[in-house]
Amino acid sequence: MFPGRLLPALYLTSVVAAVAVLAPLLPGLIGVAPGHLLYRDAVSTPRTHVTDTTLGIGDLPPRAVPQDWFVAMVSSAVDGGVVVIAALLAALVFAGVGFGRLACRLVPGAGRLGGVAAALVAIWNPYVAERLLQGHWSLLAEYASLGWIFVAVLDLRERPEPVRFLQLGGLLAAAGLTPTGSVLAGVVLAVALIGRPVGLRHSLIAVGLWILSTLPWVVTAVISDATTTSAAAGVDAFGLRSEPGLGPVGTVLSLGGIWNADAVPASRTMWWAAIATFCFLLVIAAGVVALWRRRTALDPLVPAIGVLTAAVAILLVLTTFGPGRWLLEFAVEHIAGAGLLRDTQKFSALLVPGVALAVAGAVTAARRRVPSGFALAGVVLLVVAPLPDLAWGVGGSVRTVSYPDDWAAVADIVPADRGSVALWPTDTVRHYRFADGVSLDPAARMFRAPVIESGALTVDGEVVDPPSDHAAAVASVLESGGAPAELAALGVGWVLVENDSTPALLAADARLAHDGDDLRLYQVGEPAERGAGVADRTLAIVAHLVWAAMLLAGIAGAVVASVRERRRTSR
């Protein structure tokens, strides 16, 4: 299926590239440096606990389901910081190998060099850089699964064995760490099944596996009271943002355009971005021409991926203006779950399969005119050199932190069964003295009790996501002085104060359980019973267990398939 020396070359290339990107984080894996992420959306803690929040049945929409539950389960045995860094490293390595395998499988004559080039571009691109800077480690894990899903469908067509379905199910589960990943995987699976049909029965099984992989967030979205729509302003706040000198078209084609201008590598914030994009598109164009010339010899999946690439690129550009934007705003505001689409640049991940094939095609074409080593070096130079600051944690921007002792102390005090924890201040975004830049509050992942998070999000003075009703009621009490009796009536048993201005009534009437340099913890009395019911919690847990079973079965299937393949090739 693959030449004997191909996979080692792909893994070696991917490991080297991933280490070059994540080098500042890797000492945390072996405990010789701080090992936790706390920047923007990336939050890891020594231990995450299973609560209504991590199950996705709290006050907020289940946006991080089953991601948070997965980390909670694994961190019961391994430090949560190690779990996240290891997942991020694995994501980049497997992204390279997966897209490299896809290119070798579909591009005639690609060989090791074409596969290596495809693997490198899958890791070394603006999409990875910007999502890493935003802290979207789970999105990168989902992104890593896409190339493997294509290959898994190809394997199904050749040999539709039960073990192949287990592998596919595991890949769909891995891609479904969050709802966005499930949507990406669903699109890729549909394109693969249409471009390379495996028969009606097998297609129905594959679709059924995808549906099962979505159960954690689908079930929790149905049983949760959280809102499933969003404000239309979110499209403007989170939509694709044109980068310097590129406009919407150039930004989309270069795999950039994240909404947050602070989550962009320095090299993408100046005139250099236009030069880098020209170099990148030069390689892509050469590869597309090479593939077009050999179109009669191509696997039917190649044109299907080409259509996917063109369609996604056009749709992303259309969402930046006029009717396309108006339609997206309407959907986000009125259709349940459509808020998944507002961060449109996430879906640039669907361009990468086409990019990987084009890069492999460019190397294959260049090898006919120059020695193979020069062909690979030329393509690598045009792809990697324009984004030099992806190395070393995107120019040193991504670093680990060490939590002050106060955090472990308050986490040990708060039990699971004496009410929820309210936060003061109630803002969603934090800026801690021990971390660089802004982040989310780590308390929700660190405490055994549910933490009441506002969920409110304001961008440029405009409310994009309002707070939940429960969080708004708690915030109102705290802003009025924090009367313990009123807080207890709302199910609050504890208040974690993260600044020096404790609400007056709280300070006067509540019991001070911890007084540290960074945090103060107050106990407010006997809280009213509040939270998800037993039936809802059971449904959520069952949905997560189904997802976990798919993931574990997929890993077992991969091991069995690998052993069988080795036996087959050794005969």
From TrEMBL:
Locate the transmembrane regions by residue number. Answer: 9-30, 69-94, 106-124, 168-194, 270-292, 304-327, 347-366, 373-394, 539-563
Does the record carry Membrane as a key word?
Answer: yes
Keywords, alphabetical:
Membrane, Transmembrane, Transmembrane helix
What is the protein name stated in its UniProt record?
Answer: Transmembrane protein
What organism does the record attribute this protein to?
Gordonia westfalica
